[in-house]
Request: fold
Amino acid sequence: MVRKFLADKLEVIQNCTACSINEGCNLDANRDSTMTIPGLLKSGDTIGVVSPSGSISREKLNPGLNYLKSQGYSVRLGDSVFAEDRYLAGTDYNRAHDLNVLFADSSVNAIFAARGGYGSTRILDKIDYSVIVDNPKILVGFSDTTALQWGVFAETGLVTYTGFTLHPDATDDGVSSRVEDSLWAQLKLGIFDAVNGLRVIKHGSASGPLLAGCLSLVASLVGTRYFPDMAGAILVLEDVNEEPYRIDRMLTQLRLAGVFEVVSGVILGEFCGCTPENPNHGHLGSIIDELVDWVDGPVLAGIPYGHGPDRVVLPIGAAAELTTEEHEGSLLCVFN
Reply:
């Protein structure tokens, strides 16, 4: 599903250029704390799998597990991956414990979320962040894990990767080519393909840490210690199945919290299924028109990041640069 204003506000991006990520490098881009890029994956490495949010059956997870194995990796499951506690994959303690154990285990090289859903916010105060600082490694998730990944970045400075979960992104037919290419280019090769062709809503240039995620989860962190310092950040937002007035409410919450006063730029991803039940209630385009006035820096749209079937994977916390020309803008990595 796509938004009615897609033709006016958003475009799918096809053109990419590459910039390299240095394994193990530290980044400092308009931030007080040091950002850490985890090491790269090698064939034969072990990937841990956790369910920090909703519960999942083995049947639904098997395609994802088989996909990781087909890529040449061993897989280690967290103890509560298949647990069920209401709508959660086990208790908050057990879901956090799985993360703590896999981060502490030196034989595990990366951690992938099994699925999204709801629940990662509930475990933020149960994670041992000192273990993550001492054992930085790849963490991959999407959607509900926005809360987890933003919290990890706020507490440790670890760059993580948003845009892929084992379910539903991996099926018996594999993974969409854009997701697959973007994911493994970063995790195995240390290459981020800059995204060109973004639609310019407001011109300008920006640089700073890239903070991308689901708007509803981003808004839920405001006022907590797990909300990163937004000063100078390039903010990328997406969401799914939210009425426009709810999108308005969450963006207004960010405005009242002062977020748009301090970020260096904003990029809007996909807002799938976010059309109003009552057409008289307007559409997202009018909300974006207001957003432009809230942001001092550039505002762009059209990045293929959202709950659609095809997206790019983005490195949360990595240093980035946003530029605009007459008709389009680009998001690229800047690594010092």
Observations:
- The chain has two domains: 6-20+192-333, 34-189.
- Residues 34-189 form a domain with the Rossmann fold fold (CATH 3.40.50.10740).
